[in-house]
Queue: 2 jobs
Job 1
Amino acid sequence: MLTIENLQTQVEDKPILKGISLTVNPGEIHAIMGPNGSGKSTLSHVLAGRSGYEVTGGSVDFKGQNLLDMKPEERARAGIFLAFQYPVEIPGVSNIYLLKAALNAVRRHRGDNEVDAMDFLQLVKGKIKALGLDEQFLYRGVNEGFSGGEKKRNEILQMAILEPSLCILDETDSGLDIDALKIVADGVNALRSPERSFILVTHYQRLLDYIKPDFVHVLAHGRIVKSGGPELALELEEKGYGWVEQPAAA
Ligand code: ADP
Ligand code: MG
Ligand code: MG
């Protein structure tokens, strides 16, 4: 699915990622943990193709394609989903409109027909019911006045509709209450499948109480300093990050 080799990036001439290597196979959930400022969000953004990050070395292969050569929208169409892709409020553009446009872009890329309005309505109604959302939600402006929990549900709804192969969730942790954590966890667990992979970025272990990852990696100073199974997250919760962190100039 995804092979990252010795990835190096800088932001405004400052090296951030200093040689990341990571292989994600279909069906796997990889948790990326680490102290604040270690480069977790940078890694998510570089994979999604956000501007402002300069790749200075290494390679990323996604399903046999050179990911770094692809524009952000090409990456999305090829099956990469970054939660908070649409963080901004888009007043006047309804949620249902954006969802349908995004789904049809993905379908065209796959060589499938576009869904017609009636089929789409049926599809989306089934999904929102499963997520415990009100139908009104579909007709509101994108993220307009959404509560934290609604934004989370909306992210999960986007994932459920778009059916990406690789979901990247950067749970920046700020303001994620226990209800929001459960929304994310239930959504991820429901979408787990042998064909779909997840990269879950989280500072705290608590999200992993609800989602059992296959692998846990610790990022510190732009490098993966330790990898292990789910038990590593528990160990980090107990001991903090100090014992795995290495000085940057190792
Ligand atoms: P994390 O998500 O692990 O907290 P980030 O990827 O957000 O870490 O940040 C890693 C480092 O890169 C930090 O030192 C941060 O200050 C720096 N950084 C991130 N984005 C920018 C930016 N746009 N401009 C300058 N420095 C940045
Ligand atoms: Mg941070
Ligand atoms: Mg971050």
Job 2
Amino acid sequence: EQNITPYEAIGEETLSHLVDSFYGKVQKHPLLSPIFPDDLTETARKQKQFLTQYLGGPQIYTEEHGHPMLRARHLPFEITPTRANAWISCMKEAMKEVELEGELRDFLLHRLQLTAHHMVNTAENAE
Ligand code: HEM
């Protein structure tokens, strides 16, 4: 009845498992692994912080790293539409794996799709 945030609805534990599962898939993805560091510990830690605040939880990413400026932070990497789709497909698999389902899953996926699309900074044929 109280308005709880999507962060509270998903819960810290599920969010953490989601991010770990996601980077496990990124690490194995032929289009994604080459642009990520070999050790994704720190990347996963930052992503947990980011998604916490993205979903209405405490602003822990900003407290440690400042304004997310996500598009700017992604400019060093060639993000094509195909790479954005690969990112989303890893996320969908991770959602399945941690059994994030229903409206919450659809809500989060929709928002991530918009954000992923916004990160595209390189045309397909530029690769
Ligand atoms: C960092 C790729 C979409 C959030 C990174 C890094 C790469 C990357 C290569 C650097 C990893 C590191 O050095 O630790 C991509 C690709 C995407 C994508 C290919 C496809 C569209 C997204 C989306 C979000 C996101 C949709 C948020 C919902 C982040 C965050 C970081 C990050 C929070 C850490 C930034 C920091 O260093 O503080 N991403 N990303 N990314 N990405 Fe993405």
